[in-house]
């Protein structure tokens, strides 16, 4: 049975956030809100938790997992970026974008897209997520909470608890969340490519 924390969306309760971070560090899988939709998250180094997320979402090794970061300070640890790409990232973070980047050797192979060796990177503009990441002191491994067969993310935390109460360890209730996924931009090659148009404006990354 999963735990269920009601978190204030603008002033997250420090005690509950600390408990959530401890659950992540202990190998738990959590559901948490972002600036676009609810997501599934776990500790970056925990293979068992990652495998649980794969089972929940029914994902194969072609799926890009995302490192959800508090800011860009850790980007050089996990992704290879030149100055031009870094400027693009800085202009559009925090915000509802997921950027596909070449992964460094610091990223566990199981988190990478198998063929291209890429990783997603995201800096959400959400107080709950930002506070949680601050307590963790490292990125959260994450995927959008879109159930198998669905096209849109789940938005109601009570419905999420009902569906996933035996599959996850914690649901962070930050209120109703959006159902629009992030805009996904591939920055791994020479020219940016919009792979999915979502909540973030794709125009800055589209060819004229």
UniProtKB/TrEMBL annotation:
Q: Name one GO molecular function term.
A: L-threonylcarbamoyladenylate synthase
Span of domain YrdC-like: 14-200
Q: Which residues form the signal peptide?
A: none
Q: What class of enzyme is it?
A: transferase
Keywords, ordered alphabetically:
Nucleotidyltransferase, Transferase
Q: Which residues form a coiled coil?
A: none
Alphabetical list of Pfam families matching this protein: Sua5_yciO_yrdC
Q: Is Nucleotidyltransferase given among the entry's keywords?
A: yes
Enzyme Commission number: 2.7.7.87
Question: InterPro entries attached here?
Answer: DHBP_synth_RibB-like_a/b_dom, Sua5-like_dom, SUA5_domain
Presence of the UniProt keyword Metal-binding in the record:
no
Official protein name in the record: L-threonylcarbamoyladenylate synthase
